[in-house]
């Protein structure tokens, strides 16, 4: 399969400039939304542009800036929502999270499926492996599409930085272990983060202080 067969589009949404993604299989026309964080019309528009039918909603974690458009996206697509169970407390507290960040949301519809480490998620003929990367939140995961050398890393690894570890449910030790794990991916793996520009594992291993030093 050539790299032309994957469709990856993104939008930057909301007050914390969150990257949300549409990933699709060009061959079958099946697509997923990774993090329904905002601008539901924009996300659905991207899917339409590529004639993708959204068949799954995949959540890297349940912070408000990554879930704020869940009600609209769920309503419009009827697609099952996938979340790691360790982020259920954050999911259920979405209205309270929203109050803190000025993003009004109602109680979210329940997730349909549990994510777990090592799970394979089909996106048409593509497959993404779930990598459990707790630390920023208790149930953070990345979605690794090995055949296309790309990981959607949520708020774990950013270009030159990492996700916050001072939030309720964050854990610095878990974050250290998760960064070590993600940095074990091949250097040419593209990293599509929850915030900021895309990068690669190799570049971050050279430049990212949180991968190089004790903190
Ligand atoms: Zn987050
Ligand atoms: Zn975020």
Automatic annotation (TrEMBL):
Does this UniProt record's set of keywords contain Hydrolase? yes
Q: Which SUPFAM superfamilies match?
A: Metallo-hydrolase/oxidoreductase
Q: Where is the Metallo-beta-lactamase domain?
A: 17-195
Name the keywords, alphabetized.
Answer: Hydrolase, Metal-binding, Zinc
Q: So which cofactors does this thing need?
A: Zn(2+)
**MF (Gene Ontology):** hydrolase activity; metal ion binding
Which Pfam families does UniProt cross-reference here?
Lactamase_B
Q: What is this protein called?
A: MBL fold metallo-hydrolase
Origin organism is: Persicimonas caeni
């Amino acid at each position: 399969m050539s790299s032309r067969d994957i469709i990856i589009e993104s939008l930057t949404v909301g007050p914390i400039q969150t990257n949300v993604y549409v990933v699709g299989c060009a061959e079958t026309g099946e697509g997923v939304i990774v993090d329904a964080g905002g601008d539901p019309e924009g996300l659905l528009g991207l899917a339409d542009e590529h004639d993708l039918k959204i068949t799954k909603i995949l959540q890297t974690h349940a912070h408000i800036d990554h879930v704020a458009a869940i009600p609209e996206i769920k309503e419009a697509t009827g697609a099952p929502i996938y979340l790691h169970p360790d982020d259920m407390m954050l999911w259920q507290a979405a209205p309270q999270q929203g109050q803190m960040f000025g993003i009004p949301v109602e109680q979210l519809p329940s997730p349909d499926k549990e994510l777990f480490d090592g799970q394979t998620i089909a996106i048409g003929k593509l497959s993404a492996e779930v990598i459990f990367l707790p630390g920023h939140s208790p149930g953070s995961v990345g979605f690794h599409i090995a055949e296309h050398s790309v990981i959607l890393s949520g708020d774990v690894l950013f270009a030159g930085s990492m996700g916050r570890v001072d939030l309720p449910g964050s854990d610095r030790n878990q974050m250290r272990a998760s960064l070590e794990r993600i940095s074990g991916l091949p250097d040419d793996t593209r990293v599509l983060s929850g915030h900021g520009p895309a990068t690669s594992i190799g570049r971050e291993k050279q430049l990212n202080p949180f991968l190089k030093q004790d903190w």
